[in-house]
């Protein structure tokens, strides 16, 4: 079973390590970037742990706007390549969407146009492509789709996970 927990400062080195493996051509985040994101009052960062307590994935979302006009933006999702295809990405997306659903409003994200698996995952959770950002990822120059999930309230909590607060 995978547990979803709030990211701790002690998780940051592992996140940076996974970034180097997952996104080597697109300026992977360094530890300082994760520290900055974790410190942001409007950001929520989580990790996925396996039965042995090993961190096998991470994700982050920014809760933006205000109570009258809320919106959220998924900043990152990463899963250890040795653990991909086991539902960890799905568990992370569900946890992020549960957090966004408590506030309401649409959720946005950017994804490489060649990341077919991620696009399919996002579409499965109600996201639609709404735009194209040319040369979005640097230094590779890869294009990104902007995707949007419409506002939903009362989003169900992920099953078989511990949701962060």
Structure description:
InterPro entries: AcTrfase_RimI/Ard1, Acyl_CoA_acyltransferase, Bact_Acetyltransf, GNAT_dom. The chain has 165 residues and is an alpha+beta fold. It has a single domain (3-149), classed as 3-Layer(aba) Sandwich (Aminopeptidase), CATH 3.40.630.30. The protein contains four helices and seven strands. It has a seven-stranded mixed sheet with strand order 1-2-3-4-5-7-6, sandwiched between helices. A hairpin with a 5-residue loop joins strand 2 and strand 3 (55-65). It starts with a strand and ends in a 16-residue tail after the last strand. Mean pLDDT is 90; it is low at 154-165.
In short:
The chain has about 160 residues and is of the alpha+beta class. It has helices at about 10-20, 30-40, 90-105, 115-125; strands at about 5, 45-50, 55-65, 70-80, 105-110, 130-135, 140-150. The model is unreliable at about 155-165 (pLDDT under 50).
> What gyration radius follows from the Cα positions, in whole Å?
15 Å
Domain count: the total is: 1
The total count of strands amounts to 7
| Main structural class | alpha+beta
Q: Mean pLDDT, nearest integer?
A: 90
Strand order of the largest sheet: 1-2-3-4-5-7-6
Based on Cα principal axes, name the global outline: globular
Low-confidence runs (pLDDT<50, min 5 residues)? Answer: 154-165
As a percent range, the share of strand residues is 25-35%
* Cα distance spanning the termini: 20 Å
CATH class: Alpha Beta
Largest sheet: 7 strands, mixed
Order of helices and strands: EHHEEEHEHEE
Q: Which CATH architecture?
A: 3-Layer(aba) Sandwich
Number of helical stretches of at least 4 residues: 4
CATH superfamily: Gcn5-related N-acetyltransferase (GNAT)
CATH fold label: Aminopeptidase
| Secondary structure: helix percent | 25-40%
InterPro entries: AcTrfase_RimI/Ard1, Acyl_CoA_acyltransferase, Bact_Acetyltransf, GNAT_dom
Pfam families: Acetyltransf_1
Organism: Nocardia uniformis
GO molecular function, one term: N-acetyltransferase activity
